[in-house]
Structure formats: structure tokens, C-alpha cells
Amino acid sequence: MVKSPKILLGVTGSINIATIFVYISALQSELQCRMHIMMTPAAQSFIPASTLIHSIDGDVFVDLSAKGDFKMPHVELTHWADAIVVLPASANTIAKVAHGFAQDIVSSTILCANSPVIFLPSMYLGMWHKPSVKRNINQLREDGYHVYPALDATSTGNERMGGALPAPQTAASYVKQILTKSSD
Ligand SMILES: Cc1cc2nc3c(=O)[nH]c(=O)nc-3n(C[C@H](O)[C@H](O)[C@H](O)COP(=O)(O)O)c2cc1C
Q1: Where does the sequence pass through the membrane (predicted)?
Q2: What is the model's pLDDT at position 150?
């Protein structure tokens, strides 16, 4: 793995966005990484970008507008990033990427990306068990994306969450493992 990898964190509209700060902190301490964040409009309705900016050394991108050195963020961020981590990954963003949509900064950037893209899904159990969601997850894997192996309600102890997030340290180790393999 490269020293101080550059992580582009894609944050989407899942209820678990409430825990995002702990995951950012785990990624920073496990990887010693530099970080930019991009947020979907739905994610911004949960947490404003101005709140996230204080926890990283980089910027928070909320749309496709030029920002700082990035004149076309959805293209140039992909050159900058060693990996894109989508956390939490909503069912809607998973569907967008599985079908090649580019409707916001997260899905547009992923459609341009060559670096590894890692999804950590998070959604209610009812969504998780839908055939359409399963199809989309399978499609992501077939297309070469990394999707964190599903956690079910029994293993998380949360009866309502299906594709639940792993513990922050586990998520950070998973990302590190993929970065290490991809730089071999
Ligand atoms: C309170 C609330 C909680 C939600 N939690 C989830 C969730 O955990 N997972 C999910 O996939 N969608 C969840 N949604 C629905 C998404 O926010 C919605 O599908 C949205 O369009 C996602 O957009 P995005 O993928 O562009 O971020 C929730 C919506 C609300 C209002």
C-alpha cells in the first residue's frame, strides 16, 4: 500500500450517516490517509457539508461544480484518489452505479473512476432482501467493484438493518486490505 493513501469518501443518504465521524476517524488512523469527501444531495439532507469539512484535511464536494484545484471534480478526483470508499452506501446509489447512472457527484465520479471502488452498504432489512437490491449488488461485483460482505440482522444484533455497516475498525481494515492488494 502507498504511504498516506488518498481516499475519496462517497457519503450517501443512509440513516447510518449519523455514525460517519467514527468511520472517518478509523480510516484516518488505520491508513494515515489524506481525504476528500463527496456527498449526494440526500446525504446533505442528513448532515450538512459544513459539518464534515472539519474532520478532514481535504474538501467536501457537494456537486459537479469546480472547487479549488479541481475544475471538473468528477473527472479530476478520480485521478487524485488511490481508492473511492462509499460509506454508507444506500440502495439508491448502489442502483445508480449498477446501471451506469451519473446523476450526482458520487455516481458521476464512480462512473469515471479507474481506482478501486469499495462499497459498504447500509439499509433497512426490507430493502436489503429485495431481489432488485441483490441483483444490483451482484452487478457491482461482476463489474469489478468491491462490496463489503453482507452482515445480516443476526450478526449485527439489529433486527431492522440488513446490509449493516461493520464496526469502524473492521471497515478500515477491509479498505486497507483492498489497497494493499491493488498496489501489489
Ligand atoms: C430517515 C431516513 C432514513 C433512510 N435510511 C436509509 C438507509 O439506511 N439506507 C438506504 O439505502 N436508504 C435510506 N433512506 C432512503 C434514501 O435516503 C433515499 O433512497 C435517497 O434517495 C438516497 O439517495 P442517494 O443514494 O443519492 O444518497 C432513508 C431515508 C430517510 C428519510
Answers
A1: 7-26
A2: 67
E strand or H helix at 117: strand 117-121
Q: What domains sit in the chain, N to C, each tagged with a CATH number?
A: 6-182 (3.40.50.1950)
Mutate to test the pocket of ligand 1, among 9, 11, 15, 46 (most ligand atoms within 8 A of CB): 15
Query: What CA–CA distance (Å, rounded) separates 166 from 147?
Result: 12
Give the per-residue pLDDT at 157: 58
Three-state secondary structure call for residue 37:
strand
In DSSP terms, which residues pair with 37 in a beta bridge? Answer: 9, 60
Listing DSSP states for 137-165 in one string gives: HHHHHHTT-EEPPP--HHHHT-TTBSSPP
Q: pTM (2 decimals)?
A: 0.95
Burial label, 146 (beta-carbon count in 10 A; 0-12, 13-18, 19+): buried
pLDDT tens-place string over residues 137-176: 999 999 999 999 866 555 555 555 556 799 999 999 999 9
Q: Vertex 118, ends 154 and 30: CA angle to 5°?
A: 85
- Answer yes or no: is the C-beta of 107 below 6 A from any ligand 1 atom: no
Residues 27-43: pLDDT tens digits? 999 999 999 999 999 99
Asked if residue 92 has its Cβ within 6 Å of ligand 1, the reply is yes
For ligand 1, say whether the CB of 93 is within 6 Å of any of its atoms: yes
The pLDDT score that the predictor gives to residue 159 is 54
